[in-house]
# Entry
Amino acid sequence: MKFAKILFAVTIIFYIAYDWYFGWNEKPINDAEKTCDEISGWMFLASIIFYVQPIFKYLESRVAFQEANEKTEEENKESETIENNE
# Structure
């Protein structure tokens, strides 16, 4: 998460710096500006992916925890029915 925050901050600084250098144009005026646009776009995407990734890991662990609980509940019910039948 810390890496994602640092990457996002670096991306913002890079974006502002190259836009300040080339000017705030709607469309790129040369290949260098187009390359900087692509680099900043990929950096934004990477920072978002790294920022959201821990959320998916947390959700995956919660699902695994719930599945384990459901499995133990089913095993407990089966053992109770076996004990009741004896």
The mean pLDDT is 84. Residues 3 and 34 are 26 Å apart (CA to CA). Residues 2-85 form one domain.
